[in-house]
Amino acid sequence: MEIRKTKEEIFIVLYKVKEIADMAGVSVRTLHHYDKIGLLKPNEVNESGYRFYTLESLEKLQQILFFKELDFNLHEIKEMIEKSDFDRKEALKDQKKLLEKN
Fold it and tell me: Is residue 95 within 8 Å of residue 72, measured between CB atoms?
C-alpha cells in the first residue's frame, strides 16, 4: 500500500495489484487480463510497470465479479459498467430468464 498526494492536495491510498487481488479473492493474472481487455484499468502504473489500484477500483472489481457470478460474459459486463444509459435492471431480468431455462 502506498499513500500519494494529488495536485489538489488530497491524499489517496494506492494498493498493489497483489493486494487488490487478495482482497477480492482473484488472481493477479485475472487483474492483468481485465487490464488488457480494458475492463478494469489500474489507477496508476509506475515506471517499473507495477500496477496500483484505489478502493474505488476494488468496488468496480466487486461489481464485475457479481455480474460474472450471474453468468454475464466479460463483454456484457464491460458494457454494463461503462455505459451510463445501460439498463442494468432489464439486463438482470433477461439474465434471470436465461438462467431459469437452464
Answer: yes
Q: Domains of the chain, with CATH numbers?
A: 2-101 (1.10.1660.10)
pTM exceeding the 0.85 threshold for the entire prediction: no
Collapse the DSSP code of 92 into the 3-class scheme (helix H, G, I; strand E, B; otherwise coil) and give the result. helix
Q: Which residue's C-alpha cell is 507495477?
A: 50
DSSP H helical ranges for 1-102: 17-24, 28-36, 55-69, 74-82, 88-101
54, 15 contact by CB (below 8 A): yes
Tens digits of per-residue pLDDT, 19-54?
Answer: 999 999 999 999 999 999 999 999 999 999 999 999
The whole-angstrom separation of Cα 98 and Cα 58 is 28
Return the pLDDT at 86: 67
pLDDT in tens, 43-52: 999 999 999 9
CA distances from 88 to 11, 59, 94, 95 (A): 33, 17, 10, 10
